[in-house]
């Protein structure tokens, strides 16, 4: 049976043409002229455009006929079902939920970015594109009935909404997820797009247009939410020998089981992240020495004793535990193996280590890099350098220390982001500024952030960096009068754009001096809050710490 596309299929309709009008007939031209009163007809119905669209339409119908006539054994059953599961984005939102349940930050970001891209692409296609072009669906007389197991859609054909959603989700995932995850998602998206032609729902041109719109939507999410680099660059430790073995001999790892675990109600029932990581180390590196900390045990003392007899010092825990391990590794000049086992694991993630298995692979490969270590030291004359408080990620003072305290109390019940929102509202409603002299200038400091290296993200607590060895401090501060616009400040913190707050300044520095007028200052270092002397100096030890890094 011959296809009757040329007899009954309109390729494109102008926005004002009625459904009964064939687009390139005289009737259709008269209706089109009413929709374009200034020019007499839409641009695409005039000579050169009309001829071009005619050639494209014929090529599109020819490609559809070829696909309709194709026989792909095995796919006659698979592709129609795959196309059906993509209805209303069910396939992609289910995939996003699965990625979110992995508890891996990169995959969670990929799921969120892909979902946002769908939310952008879907209305562009279904509200704007389909209503603007009003292209009819293909005639399916060449498509075998086995492929058309469900009622064909009755909406307009151009562009393909399924293809746009598939491409948007795949592009969003590709910006964040590793290739091992992004590639299967991209292949599935391509299969869904092909299935729309294979089942007779769309012409190839509809699908290509949908793919283009979806890809632009996915890439466009970077305009409001910059993609995070998977690994921060570090200086390679050239010529430094490190003793590593396949069974872990010479590795002494300290495990903090209180890091990254569930709450007190589930402790002992469900293993925490640190306990899971310790179990993997014990299985993969049986000759390594594992030291499990007891509740209340002195971290600094435990790491110092472990570093004395270690060729490699390992740490399993969150950022606060890694901070204590870095101190011992520097004091004893041993390389540090960071195994993620905390709640956020900012430093491990900056290195590109998101799972214990990646840390083990980096150890066995013996790849070392050198990173900067920042510090806050007592700046009073004659104080010396023995009281340096190190930090690998961030240090902060002002209302931010109160925000950290409140967030930590709430996050076990509410989760990270709801706890941050509630803590920000409560803190900025009740907080008072810190009167301090900052680099010789008296200021009323509401929020102060000092980063070990320049951070690429915005907000009160940025989380990612492009380099860990740039030798700079990233200083961000809200310093204004005694009165702060509280509602505006809360909105700025939650939106991640502190520059909207009056008195916000950000600058790059090699050092920073702070003198608190009211005496003792509270400082949050890598998420741990502690008191410090009123006169402190922030600085850097460039490329001082040797760490194991994954293959770049």
Automatic annotation (TrEMBL):
Entry's localization field: Cell membrane
Domain DAGKc per the UniProt entry, residue ranges: 246-380
SMART domains xrefs: acidPPc, DAGKc
UniProt key word Transmembrane: yes
Keyword terms: Cell membrane, Hydrolase, Membrane, Transmembrane, Transmembrane helix
Database matches in InterPro entries: ATP-NAD_kinase_N, Diacylglycerol_kinase_cat_dom, NAD/diacylglycerol_kinase_sf, PAP2/HPO, PAP2/HPO_sf, YegS/DAGK_C
Membrane topology reported for the UniProt record: Multi-pass membrane protein
Domain of life: Bacteria
Protein name, UniProt field: Phosphatase PAP2 family protein
Organism: Actinomadura violacea
């Amino acid at each position: 049976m011959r296809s009757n596309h040329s007899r009954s299929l309109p390729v494109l309709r102008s926005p004002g043409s009625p459904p009964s009008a064939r687009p390139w007939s005289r009737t259709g031209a008269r209706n089109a002229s009413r929709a374009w009163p200034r020019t007499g007809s839409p641009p695409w119905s005039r000579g050169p455009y009309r001829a071009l669209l005619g050639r494209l339409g014929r090529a599109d119908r020819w490609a559809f006929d070829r696909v309709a006539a194709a026989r792909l054994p095995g796919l006659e059953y698979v592709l129609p079902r795959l196309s059906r599961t993509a209805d209303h984005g069910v396939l992609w939102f289910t995939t996003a939920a699965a990625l979110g349940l992995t508890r891996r930050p990169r995959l969670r970001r990929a799921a969120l970015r892909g979902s946002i891209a769908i939310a952008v692409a879907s209305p562009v296609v279904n509200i704007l594109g389909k209503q603007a072009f009003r292209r009819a669906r293909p005639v399916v007389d060449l498509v075998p009935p086995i492929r058309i197991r469900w009622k064909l859609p009755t909406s307009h054909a151009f562009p393909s909404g399924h293809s746009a959603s598939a491409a948007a989700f795949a592009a969003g995932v590709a910006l964040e997820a590793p290739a091992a995850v992004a590639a299967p998602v991209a292949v599935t998206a391509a299969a869904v797009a092909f299935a729309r032609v294979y089942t007779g729902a769309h012409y190839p041109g509809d699908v290509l247009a949908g793919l283009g719109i979806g890809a632009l939507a996915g890439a466009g999410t970077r305009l409001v939410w910059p993609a995070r680099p998977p690994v921060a660059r570090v200086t390679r430790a050239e010529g430094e020998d490190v003793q590593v073995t396949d069974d872990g001999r010479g590795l002494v790892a300290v495990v903090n089981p209180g890091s990254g675990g569930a709450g007190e109600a589930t402790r002992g029932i469900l293993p925490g992240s640190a306990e899971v990581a310790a179990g993997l180390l014990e299985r993969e590196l049986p000759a390594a020495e594992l030291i499990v900390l007891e509740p209340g045990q002195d971290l600094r003392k435990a790491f110092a004793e472990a570093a004395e007899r270690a060729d490699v010092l390992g740490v399993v825990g969150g950022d606060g535990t890694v901070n204590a391990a870095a101190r011992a590794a520097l004091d004893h000049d041993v390389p540090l193996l960071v195994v993620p086992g905390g709640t956020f694991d900012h430093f491990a993630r900056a290195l590109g280590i998101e799972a214990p298995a990646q840390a083990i692979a980096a150890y066995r490969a013996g790849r070392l890099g050198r990173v900067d270590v920042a510090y806050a030291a007592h700046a009073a004359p004659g104080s010396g350098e023995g009281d340096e408080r190190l930090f690998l990620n961030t240090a902060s003072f002002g209302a931010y220390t109160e925000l950290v305290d409140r967030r930590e109390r709430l996050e076990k019940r509410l989760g990270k982001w709801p706890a941050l929102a509630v803590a920000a509202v409560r803190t900025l409603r009740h907080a008072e500024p810190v009167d301090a002299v900052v680099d010789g200038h008296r200021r009323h400091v509401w929020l102060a952030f000092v980063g070990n290296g320049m951070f690429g993200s915005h907000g009160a607590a940025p989380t990612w960096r492009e380099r860990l060895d740039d030798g700079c401090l990233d200083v961000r501060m809200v310093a204004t009068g005694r009165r702060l616009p509280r509602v505006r400040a809360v909105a700025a913190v939650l939106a991640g754009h502190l520059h909207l707050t009056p008195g916000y300044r950000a600058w790059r520095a090699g050092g920073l001096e702070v003198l608190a007028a009211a005496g003792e200052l509270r400082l949050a270092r890598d998420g741990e809050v502690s008191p410090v002397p009123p006169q402190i100096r922030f600085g850097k030890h460039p490329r001082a710490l040797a760490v194991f890094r994954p293959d770049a």
